[in-house]
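Entry 12.
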Amino acid sequence: MAEHNALLCPALDKVAGEEFLQKAFQIMLEEGVRKGMDASEKVCDWKEPEELQQILDLDLKDGGEPQERLLDRCRDVIRYSVKTCHPRFFNQLFSGLDPHALAGRLITEMLNTSQYTYEIAPVFVLMEEVVLKKLRELIGWEEGDGLFSPGGSISNMYAMNVARYHRFPDCKQKGNWAIPKLAVFTSQECHYSIQKGAAFLGIGTDNIYLVAVDEKGKMIPADLEKKINQAKSERAFPFFVNATCGTTVLGAFDPVAEIAEVCARHKIWLHVDAAWGGSALLSQRHRHLLNGVERADSVAWNPHKMLMTGLQCSAFLLRDNSGLLQRCHCAEATYLFQTDKFYNRTYDRGDQTIQCGRKVDCFKLWLMWKANGTRGLEQRVDRAFAMTRYLADEIKKREGFQLVIEVAPMIKERMMKKGSMMVSYQPLGNRVNFFRQVVTNPAVTREDLDFFLDEIERLGRDL
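Predicted 3D structure (tokens):
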């Protein structure tokens, strides 16, 4: 009887739930946004793993905890997490916080829908098409296709898979046994997702031909031609060239127009990994860095990087408008994509992806774009370039900023434990580790960049 009566009432306390959300949102605003964007606060409150586990009490228990204890948990999670919105967080290619994009992320999380059919996500199905069309126009395509994927790595894998299917459609049913040994070409400075994609798709990392780069990290087209001819002599089938616009370490832009000429001669699919540098297309002053991108067959572009939409927002864009993406990935699941729906089934785009459930990633970009306009986003890109130029000029003025011994790891440890800022480091070829400064956050000022240089000097003074 008690069980029967329990089914007559909701199992959630909506009043208590709303009260918790209001308090949790206030904690987010105060601790995460206000303090997180305050340069006088720490980027991170560093704790060793064993100490942090004790502070957080991560174990899951049989009984639930009271609201105030849960709110304390929320404060602790924010306190001991890295504040990527902090003006002195330079560690990754993503940073900063746009309030409109954050609002978009919160709304989509609240609605908790999947971007696969019009019936379950009518607003976002239409919105995604509008946003993707705008991105394609900036590339220079009048038509095409595309989708938002879980990240730039997956976008690059989509490109490789679609390119393979385009040349060998039988591979979808018959597998790699039905096609020749394939060859992939990319620069020595490419993102590691190209290697991962070749492994994941069964192409094999041994069949990636790494093309030489110049002193600035740009692919050398003449060496690409040489590597393509080498692959042919080794009885491999060249089918995919990946050009990078904004390499991870040096930020180099491959000469896409010249690479496109090579691809056209050999009839090879050209993909441009512009996950990092694609946003330069918004800038009249800097879009020349991607000259020739309109000749690509596909492009990866991550607005969650330079434009600050927040993770994740990665567009895979396709010049083809024949339904290639749909044919390559469709499985025609009848429980989702029924043929007798009462509305136009062309709005059900979920079967063109490798996913079933797919998060809504277009709304945060759309809302941010609505708030700032194209000109506002262009100013954001131009400011990032201007800040980078300023920092480069300041480094040239200072003595002692040429690395001659292995100090970067030690300085990184000190800055993390101090919490004053956060910047990544890595080696390049046979060079020693160096700091990779990434300046995209609009909250960054010249004072923050001067602090960056001063802090490295302070932290490394005794090394």
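Annotation: The radius of gyration is 25 Å. The chain is about 45% helix and 10% strand.
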